[in-house]
## 1
Amino acid sequence: MAHVETSSSRPYHLVIFGASGFTGQFVVEEVARTVSEGPKGNLKWAVAGRSKQKLEKVVEQAAGVLSKPELRKEVDIIVADVGEPDSLAAMCKQAVIVLNCVGPYRFYGEPVVKACVENGAHHIDICGEPQFLEGMQLNYSSQAADKGVYIIGSCGFDSIPADMGVLYTRDQFKGTLTAVESFLTVSSGPDGGCIHDGTWQSAIYGFSDGPKLQSLRRKFNHKPLPTFGSKLKRRGALFFSNEIQQYTVPFMGSDPSVVKRTQRFVAEEHQATPVQYGAYAGIGGIGNIIKLMFAGMMFWFLVKFSFGRNLLIKHPEFFSFGLFSKAGPTRKQMEASSFQFAFYGEGYPDGEDPSHGKPTSKIRTLVQGPECGYVATPIAMVQAALTILNESTALPKKGGVYTPGAAFAKTTLVDRLNKHGIQFSVI
């Protein structure tokens, strides 16, 4: 069982590392909103990062935004740097859980995971980089299990809505669910929307390192998961989706990788039927297709070369047609944005044998919520942490490196998210 109590030597339930970064500042605000949801109605927390001055500024900003002047005195500051292992060790010794907001994780993530495992702190990140996530599972899972530490990756928009959405669909299905396809649509207000370029950088390095991910996966020596029902066919690179009534492409994020790892876990540990999964994202009409084709061709060409990657990193707005920017979205843009995942599942009703014949029963569910990058992500991350603190007996029996679905399948995380604006429902 996870150790989740504070003590004189481990005074903080949560330490937000990278609190002064673009996403970190919104995680700070979300933690400040939810202190009453901590153990016994109290949450002890601190912020951490390289610059004391920047951290003070972030706490000051949160105090102003939330009209909570008491934050200035109540929130402690810890100076810690990825390049200084002793400072990370000192930070981790003081925390029950470290909320790690420092990316790209491929460059800055492993020292934090290592420090957490060695110093007995649980670790939650909001990573959308499969190579990092799977690398941490390969390299740290047995050590984390020995220490009773939970390392839970991708606890933001990547990939809690998708991963918990598939499990929710399975739990709502009356019978044996065998396959799910998800369709993501994102809406923005009159001022449009964009994503901070930290995510853009992660994508650049992720695509350039594709072959390394394949060789990493081979090291697990996984046997193929058994397929029940009809084999889920991959759709084309671009198609018109009748489900969401717009042109659609395969979803390029970490969701398929994370969901597959969860399904392997539930098959091996819970002896559940694994669910096949396909992930897609709506891109709209013809105008957006033309933009995507141009942007995609430039991206695929440039990402192969170091000079090309440097160009992509220096000019995110130009090469992404404004989708990514160094400044990130404004609060006004965030308030007017939202996302929706539509899940279409099929399987066998109770009493039918999944090993015979085609699936005859269908289900449709929705996961919808606010702006995905900087509103939904902090909500998901903080609720994941509060779930660990409040429901440690419902977590997997031993520590290790887990996906959200593997860690939280038997908790009330979905109910917690429903109360905070990320809503799961059956249609």
Note: Residues 372-390 form the longest helix (19 residues).
## 2
Amino acid sequence: MMAEDTTADATRRLNVKKQTLDDAYAAPANFLEIDVVNPITTMGVGKKRYTDYEVRMRTNLPVFKVKESSVRRRYSDFEWLRNELERDSKIVVPPLPGKALKRQLPFRGDDGIFEEEFIEDRRKGLEVFINKIAGHPLAQNERCLHMFLQEPTIDKNYVPGKIRNT
């Protein structure tokens, strides 16, 4: 009889704290969300077209001074970020979604790299890439990542370095 009482007590103690809806929907302690959305293909100079993407970030991590930002970036900007991180940081940088060489051949009958399906696949790949990098504690201190996520234009002549978390 004694054993049953202890079990009942232990179970009762476990059930005391019910999670409220507020708890369930409260912002997690630390969060960093990055969405790559709204691809827009633009006619550039000559017949040069390019697609850029909106990179939206929301965070409460102290290392980021701006808690919400939205910038537009091209694939080449993601390449720039990857190269900077490979050169200056100790992290293993994940690969970008592949270059679209086959899709740039002039005799293809379709729109190649400006095709919706390709753009959507690339968008997803870029989103996975930037979330992996931005989620890495060492990358979060790199100035190039902050510039990529938060500055309207990337200053390619910037001085690489660490962000001091003040």
Note: The two ends are 60 Å apart (CA to CA).
## 3
Amino acid sequence: LLFGTCSLLSQQQLVDYERIKAVGPDRAAAEWLLRCGAKVRFQGFDRWHHDYNGLPTGPLGRYKIQAIDATESCIMYRGFDHLDGLTHVEEIKFNKCIYIEDTCLEKLSSIENLQESLYMLEVVSCGNVTDKGVIALHRLRNLEYLFLSDLPAIKDKQMTTDRLKTALPRLDIALDLD
């Protein structure tokens, strides 16, 4: 079911810049993430939103995404421009995301707002992520916690983690890569 859903959604990965202008970056990103099976939590709220039709409404800019849980979602690189305008995202979880690959982590790391706000990231069971994608995370200068697990394409975990630790001395890296 997931694969079929993702195939149908691949067209919905395309970024609608007019929609972003109309509803704001957080609302547009939340719509994309939820369409792809992810969940979001807004700043000031404890509850995770997973139902597209249950997204809160209000004035433009009222709801800011603070956390993204993309577990088993079908987000892919072509939709990552949705993240460009997000200024309050502190946590992201990529868990069992079959379309997450190095280019996704490189894009994530190149987004200036996320370089400032993101402090917690998990990448678990994303089989297309290699050392190259993980090393790209060094641009997330405020990243404090990184959990990496079940990433079979990572070949040199020592070199990869050493490079990250050199670039981000405050970073706490938890590994479960064996």
Note: The chain has one domain: 1-176.
